Amino acid sequence: MNEFSFIEYLKKKIPKSGRVSVGIGDDAAVMSVDKNKKLVVSTDVIVENVDFKIRALSPEKIGRKTLAVNLSDIAAMGASPAAFVISIGKPPYITTSWLKRFYKGLLALAKQYNIACIGGDFSKAKEFFASITIFGEASPHQIVKRSGARPGDWIAVTGALGGSFLRHHHDFMPRVLEGLFLVKHIKPTAMIDISDGLVQDLSHILKVSGVGAALDLDEIPVSRDARKISRGNEKKALTSALSDGEDFELLFTVSPRQKKMLGKIWKKEFSKVSLKWIGKIEGEKPVIRWLRNEKVVAMPKIFKQGFAHF
Fold first, then answer.
1. What secondary structure letter does DSSP report for 67?
2. Residue 61 maps to a domain
3. Of 134, 111, 123, 107, nearest to 31 (Cα)?
4. DSSP conformation class of 45
5. Whole-prediction pTM value?
6. Is 208 helix (H, G, I), strand (E, B) or coil?
7. Structural domain boundaries enclosing 106
8. Half-sphere exposure of 265 (CA within 13 A, CB side)
9. Last residue in a domain, options 76, 110, 138
10. pLDDT score at 37
11. Are strands 38-47 and 129-138 parallel, antiparallel or unpaired?
């Protein structure tokens, strides 16, 4: 099966969407957007031996992760995912059968979130990679950026952090529903998904918002996997939660009034997803103060910087 026959296979396999007037098979896809809607676009790539080991994960799990990381970006904007295109770099050792299984995992997640695959591209490559450009939509007042945090805001995080490389990096649930719930009910002042580590991603918010933060180390939600990897060493487990990356949880800031409102309604909607208040926004410089037992402490000596590609 060559590239073009495989594209024909995908055209038959991928469900059609009512929002798409021109889908797979043309030079570009066309989709309708209401005049009161913003088109939200993001792109992410996963690369063999960087984001996954091809012998460690099934093709289905790799396909699922490829879409999941992009859905997480849309969630962090408070948008609703609509469609995506995908480009594949195929090395000689990747078979058509393997690719079919890859798409099986990807399309299962796409169906779960009612998002359409509307095109893409294939190329030869030395190692496998997959790149998705994802399109979401949101009303103008719905979109949450990183730059809105203000002194006095509370800092919150969903889920638990650290140890993601054991399993969470490929089986996590993108917080799309949680993001939409937040923008509907309270509208966070700033939001980001934790892909490169809690502290590093919080630093992105602090830098563009022109503020600092006080983080309470006692409130950081450390995952079971982080504790398992650390073999009971709480300091190592905390370091993992602060800096491992690929947690894909939502990190956001809200006003004191919003915090009070959210505390009343979160558990009713998301009983299985924890929400932790881990600190507050303060000052005008993008620095972090560290607290323990309500006292200022030195930056943890075991602290390490989050993930960076280069």
1. H
2. yes
3. 134
4. E
5. 0.90
6. helix
7. 3-138
8. 11
9. 138
10. 82
11. antiparallel
